[in-house]
User: Which sequence fits this backbone?
């Protein structure tokens, strides 16, 4: 037999499968040790076959040893990896890296534990084996014997890692074992208080004692010296979330019940759960999950990075307790491995996590739920060479179901639902009694300019803030993450310079002092006055969170201001900390980016100010309008979560824009009907698939040569497929790297043909053999 083996590496050139001869019992998904070059490496068997070309047979080596006796990645995950490699034109390493266990493959160890003891001879034999040994260290006869016991259910395997993770040690206090009442004589009142406290609590951390009593370390030190109490170190289990979950049983309303029934009964793989914020989608997820696990199935619940709030985790842990593993990007390597191991060892049947959790190695996975399915963090981009929804659908095809939940589904998702490719379920009302949708006002910032108000806040917003502060209610001021956009707009009339052919705003390139369309590549000089109204107030648009913070502090010196953005929330627990601050009403004005748009559910927030609604409207991307609608609707949903009436103020330079209008009313279907027509007209997805091909190099000439050569090769290698190809677009240099790209649009049904064609182009052009050029293909 021959095995094709994948060996992790970072070089494109050697990123292929290697064939070895196998004699032992081995299955795809097992780790093997092989002689590779001059050293030994751990690889994973991806497939087995009986035939190999005679010609090269004598060059083949034998596998050194098999490290597992059952696969560590399942067949369906291997298939998924191979599919990703094909679909996204990436190498084996890129395709398999999200699928492999976190950390170092070489360091995963399999241990044996005894479930119940056998009788007779078997017991004797078992006792003579050191079962604490790692599986790899056993002899062949020992391994065979262990397998036999396992088949009979006497022992089981667990996975362990040799990643050295230091246990977290905390100082604890307790009454000393040598405690003598006479030592209590003559201690101060404060010391007595500390002693009694520790005695009462029996076992409490030093920090908790100090915090509870509001004391310094000194009285504790004295008590220790007198041998009344003693201090010791206690290991705290790394638990990514705190354990205090409120479980509340809710009886589902009619809409929710109908949705659940329809998702369970549909024969379609994908269901879209379209329900406005607060309509009870999460309750539906919880219910679906419990139905699946009742039948012995497993569930993955994906949430966007910033959607994985303590609230969300609490709700799942509250309902399902220890059966839930949580995976988010701020986990340390050790924590991440701990969570992964719980899945591998069958200790949990639900995973709540960010996008990479779509690959967790459940064996009986029946459902993948994707919350806020429109979120851009799920989409294919530079650092994520796969589309999470697409991967989920592929993983569940023939095996289970995918549920996409959103208040503002992506145009593409809704399109498929309307075309009946997906099962559509709707929740049209807020679930909680007495919770109203907020009242929304649009403020025309051009009028403010005319009235001489050049502040970032309109008079309306300023007044509303004043009122809320007086009533001790909380305010969220929202700004787009893409703080300093490069589009050019007119502050007098709101006009934004767009490309004549693509209807997409052009980007200003400082070095060339020209506007460039990132889709088709056409350029224009920077106008001196607004082409629409002649005003001189035409300039680059942009306000940052810091500027907003300064302004608020100037206007309302008494207000407690909290700024939440990428800069202030990089540390591991800071999001949770912010969350607590807002919840406990220790901040009056919360200024934030995308982070405040999701999962924030506070009843005391009654005003949301969208400082510059236009910002994302003009990002040069065909999805800009849909993102703006999603953002505004989402942020607006933060106001008036409970009985207090909420208010939303949207500041804009283009109040007549359809998107701003639809965002203000929050009517998704109206917005969809409008936007889908635009997509059809300008041939954007879902009517086409859009692919960007980018060449980058330190050498400017080489970039251009390769771009042209590639395009030429395309005309030879891709025939019979109708392609819409744009001009070359030269991107601004970043860190001295030259970049040139072009995009291709193709009818969706021809995507497969195009991908196959591109494979031939890459092969025949031999671009991957040129170390000086880097090729990047983006699926948009
Ligand atoms: P979504 O996920 O759609 O934003 P949630 O599931 O978070 O909605 O529900 C919003 C609020 O309504 C939560 O506080 C939740 O506890 C409550 N809720 C959900 N379903 C019901 C129901 N059937 N009856 C009463 N309250 C509900
Ligand atoms: Zn103008
Ligand atoms: Zn254009």
Assistant:
């Amino acid at each position: 037999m021959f095995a094709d083996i994948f060996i992790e590496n970072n070089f494109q050139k050697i990123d292929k499968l290697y064939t070895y001869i196998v004699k032992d019992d081995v299955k795809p998904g097992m780790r093997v040790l092989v002689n590779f070059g001059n050293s030994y490496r751990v690889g994973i068997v991806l497939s087995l076959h009986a035939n190999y070309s005679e010609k090269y047979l004598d060059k083949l080596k034998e596998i050194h040893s098999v490290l597992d006796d059952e696969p560590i990645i399942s067949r369906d995950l291997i298939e998924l990896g191979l599919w990703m490699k094909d679909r996204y034109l990436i190498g084996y390493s890129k395709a398999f890296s999200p699928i492999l266990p976190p950390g170092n493959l070489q360091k995963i160890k399999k241990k044996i534990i005894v479930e119940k003891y056998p009788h007779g001879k078997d017991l004797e034999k078992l006792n003579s084996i050191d079962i604490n040994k790692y599986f790899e260290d056993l002899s062949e006869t020992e391994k065979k014997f262990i397998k036999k016991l396992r088949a009979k259910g006497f022992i089981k395997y667990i996975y362990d890692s040799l990643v050295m993770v230091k246990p977290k040690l905390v100082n604890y206090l307790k009454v000393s074992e040598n405690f003598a009442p006479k030592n209590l004589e003559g201690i101060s009142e404060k010391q007595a208080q500390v002693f009694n406290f520790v005695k009462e609590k029996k076992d409490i951390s030093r920090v908790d004692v100090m915090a509870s009593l509001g004391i310094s370390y000194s009285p504790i030190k004295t008590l220790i010296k007198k041998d009344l109490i003693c201090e010791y170190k206690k290991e705290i289990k790394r638990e990514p979330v705190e354990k205090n979950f409120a479980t509340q049983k809710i009886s589902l309303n009619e809409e929710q019940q109908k949705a659940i029934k329809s998702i369970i009964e549909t024969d379609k793989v994908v269901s879209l759960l379209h329900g406005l914020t607060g309509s009870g989608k999460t309750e539906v997820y919880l219910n679906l999950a419990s139905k699946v696990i009742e039948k012995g199935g497993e569930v993955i619940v994906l949430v966007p990075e910033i959607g994985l709030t303590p609230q969300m985790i609490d709700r799942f842990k509250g309902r399902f307790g220890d059966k839930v593993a949580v995976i988010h990007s701020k986990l340390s390597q050790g924590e991440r491995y701990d969570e992964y191991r719980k899945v591998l060892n069958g200790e949990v049947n639900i995973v709540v996590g960010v996008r990479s959790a779509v690959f967790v190695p459940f064996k009986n996975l029946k459902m993948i739920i994707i919350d806020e399915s429109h979120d851009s963090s799920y989409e294919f981009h530079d650092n994520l060479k796969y589309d999470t929804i697409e991967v989920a659908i592929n993983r569940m095809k023939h095996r289970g179901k995918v549920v996409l939940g959103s208040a503002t589904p992506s145009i593409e998702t809704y399109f498929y639902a309307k075309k009946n490719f997906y099962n559509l379920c709707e929740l049209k009302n807020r679930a909680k009694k007495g919770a109203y949708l907020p009242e929304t006002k649009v403020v025309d910032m051009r009028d403010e300019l005319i009235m001489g108000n050049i502040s970032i806040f309109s008079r309306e917003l300023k007044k509303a803030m004043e009122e809320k502060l007086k009533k001790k209610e909380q305010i969220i001021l929202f700004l787009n993450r893409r703080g300093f956009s490069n589009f050019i707009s007119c502050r007098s009339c709101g006009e934004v310079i767009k490309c004549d052919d693509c209807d997409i705003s052009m980007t200003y390139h400082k070095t060339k002092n020209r506007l460039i369309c990132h889709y088709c590549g056409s350029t224009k000089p920077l106008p001196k006055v607004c082409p629409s109204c002649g005003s001189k107030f035409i300039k680059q648009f942009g306000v940052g969170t810091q500027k907003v913070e300064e302004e608020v502090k100037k206007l309302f010196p008494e207000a407690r201001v909290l700024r939440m953005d990428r800069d202030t929330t990089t540390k591991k627990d800071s999001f949770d900390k912010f969350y607590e601050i807002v919840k406990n009403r220790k901040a009056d004005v919360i200024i934030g980016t995308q982070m405040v748009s999701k999962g924030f559910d506070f009843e005391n927030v009654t005003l949301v100010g969208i400082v510059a609604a236009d910002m994302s409207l003009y990002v040069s991307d065909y999805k800009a309008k849909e993102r703006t609608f999603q953002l505004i609707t989402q942020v607006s949903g933060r106001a008036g979560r409970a009985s207090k009436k909420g208010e939303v103020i949207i500041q804009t330079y283009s109040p007549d824009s359809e998107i701003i209008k639809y965002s203000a009313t929050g009517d998704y279907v109206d917005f969809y009907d409008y936007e889908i027509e635009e997509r059809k007209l300008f041939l954007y997805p879902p009517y086409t698939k859009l692919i960007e091909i980018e060449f980058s190099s330190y050498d400017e000439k080489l970039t251009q040569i390769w771009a042209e050569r590639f395009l030429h090769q395309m005309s030879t290698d891709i025939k019979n497929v109708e392609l819409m190809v744009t001009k070359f677009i030269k991107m601004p240099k970043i860190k001295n790297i030259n970049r040139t790209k072009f995009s291709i649009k193709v009818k969706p049904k021809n995507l497969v043909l195009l991908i196959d064609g591109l494979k031939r182009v890459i092969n025949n052009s031999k671009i991957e053999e040129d170390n000086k050029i880097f090729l990047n293909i983006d699926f948009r």
